[in-house]
Predict the structure.
Amino acid sequence: MHRTYIFSVCLLFLLSSSAVLADQTAQSDSTPSGISPSEGASTSPRPGAPPGSVQQSVSLPDYFYRHLTGTIGGKYRIVMNLMRNGGHVLGDYYYVDQGIPLFFGYDSRITTDGQIHLVETNQFGQGGSDKVTGVFDGRFVGKNEVRGTWTKSGSSSSLPFALSTVGVAEGAFDIAHVERGYYDRSHGSAKMDVTYPVMRTKSAETDAAFNANVVSAVVSLYENGVNELPPTTISQAMRDFVHAFAAQLGSNDSRTYFPPWSYSITAQVLFNAAGIVSMRYEAFSFEGGAHPNTVYTNSSYVRATGSVITLDDLLKPGYEKKLNAIGLQEFRREHGIKEGQSLAGAGYFVNDNTFHLNHNFFITKAGLVFQFNQYEIAPYYFGAQQVLIPFPALKGLLLPHSPIESLTSRTGE
């Protein structure tokens, strides 16, 4: 789950001829619907369309979010959260009748002219690996619509898919992107960039509450090694990062060149339905150590108020012991730990009697997903670990009239 591509990007900084401080801010999709591509004059065949048909090419911004609904094969209903983050793709989708999120891998891409290649991975199957389960190939055929073919992994047959934002009533977001760098051809370079959704609805009060919580979560992911005076704004975090690198260059260290530093924080929408918005915040950093580090935090919000949803808002008092037992059972199943084998025997830092869930979770249509970061319960090479606890497994623990009541009604609570 490590984003090693950042290293190659950082090497480009060395082409700068002198030390320069640079700031750049870009905000895409200024309309409330979060859609603002322009259409060009060229035409090309539409994937999955009859021979001879043509379409307008679509010019897409570098940063945008789409909430799409539609079908695969004309009958399998799906919901997709799709985000373009510069040259990379983030997001997930789920089948409406299942609700389990399938995430898009790092091989996914969206080109500026609307071509898409989305590689889906199942992170909750037995064995706990990011197994590729299918691929979407196609393109944006207009500013509201994506079409193409979906191919199941290991199969030569494909099904057409059609997705659209038309009629979608869920929350709308712009995408803000900010970056700041220090470039010194002779001694080294550093760059920090931050990308995050900005809610745009008809309620300024709700937008302000939600956006303030998002910014707070983004800023909390910046760690300067000491954090005696942690930053309170994104600008301050970026300034602290650049100044820390500049201070290294001015130190008494005998080295004359330092490897490029990189700090990238990205927030993405993972779930946007039933009055809930679930977010994942990812911080990737390299500051000259033995290896880069990646940290994930997750949060879910009541869309009508912008407020954060906690476990205490969802579960009955005294839930901890039973929740941990359910979590252990699901973790062992999803990560393929055989009966009779302990977690420690499988290489984890914890054993069955010391396993407990944290508060780093997000809400999906299928249940609650809990996140463990690198080194939290397993060695670095295991990567970040997740476990999905389905809502039916939480029967008896769920509070009535909670923010997820519409999602859990099928459990009988």
Remarks:
- The radius of gyration is 22 Å.
- Helices lie at 5-11, 204-220, 234-249, 320-334, 405-408.
- The chain has three domains: 5-29+172-302, 38-164, 311-411.
